[in-house]
Amino acid sequence: MARWGSTSAMAARAMPAEPRLKTGIWVSAYLRRLEQAGIPAFVAAHGDDDAGAVLVKLATLDGQAAAFHRSLDPASGARIWAELIRGPEAEVDGAIARQRRFDPDLWVIEIEDRRGRHLLDEEGLA
Q1: Would you call 102 helix, strand, or coil by DSSP?
Q2: Left (φ > 0), alpha (ψ -120 to 50) or beta: where does 94 sit?
Q3: Tag placement on the chain: N or C end, fewer CB within 10 Å?
Q4: Three-class SS of residue 43?
Q5: What residues contact residue 57 under an 8 Å CB cut-off, 6+ apart?
Q6: Tell me, what DSSP letter sits at residue 18?
């Protein structure tokens, strides 16, 4: 039996974790937002619908690309989108393929936009 001051008793009283949106729902909403902005995008790899991580590849149609992933900002603890890699599209594709081999539940969203728009810095997408 756990005593009131014990670790297990304190864990039982802890606040529940912040609810997280299922990945499949987030991806659908993100694709819809991109569509509304006139930015072509598609699912290049379908990951786990409930809790898969997401990579966003931005191809600028000039042979260059970048990939972004969710991360924690060490200064604020907030969730942010951070650049994983930028450079020739073949190198970015190689980095994404390595991530997919490591994590088969990974989603990959590919955007094709000459102006480099991805909307990841907009409210509600972190």
Answers
A1: helix
A2: alpha
A3: N
A4: strand
A5: 44, 65, 66, 67, 92, 93, 96, 108, 109, 110, 111
A6: P
Whole-angstrom distance, CA of residue 96 vs CA of residue 62? 19
Report how far residue 66's alpha carbon sits from residue 77's, in angstroms, rounded to the nearest whole number.
24
Query: With contact defined as beta carbons under 8 Å apart, do 67 and 88 qualify?
Result: no
Q: For residues 121 and 116, what is the distance between their CA atoms, to the nearest angstrom?
A: 12
DSSP state of 100: H
User: What domains are defined for the chain?
Assistant: 20-112 (3.40.1530.20)
Q: Which residues contact 48 (CB under 8 A, 6 or more apart)?
A: 23, 105, 107
CA separation, residue 68 to residues 8, 19, 50, 57, 92 (Å): 38, 23, 20, 6, 10
Segment 39-97, tens digit of pLDDT: 999 999 999 999 999 999 999 999 999 999 999 888 998 889 999 999 999 999 999 99
